[in-house]
Amino acid sequence: VPTAFLLIIYVKTVSQSD
């Protein structure tokens, strides 16, 4: 799994956590 993909999921998770 590309690291970029994991980064996107991480950012999306943080955004939803807001």
Automatic annotation (TrEMBL):
Annotated GO biological process: photosynthesis, light reaction
Keyword Transmembrane recorded: yes
One GO CC annotation: photosystem II
Pfam families, per the entry: PsbM
Keywords: Chloroplast, Membrane, Photosynthesis, Photosystem II, Plastid, Reaction center, Transmembrane, Transmembrane helix
InterPro entries the UniProt entry points to: PSII_PsbM, PSII_PsbM_sf
SUPFAM superfamilies reported for this sequence: Photosystem II reaction center protein M, PsbM
Protein name: Photosystem II protein M
Lineage, highest ranks first: Eukaryota, Viridiplantae, Streptophyta, Embryophyta, Tracheophyta
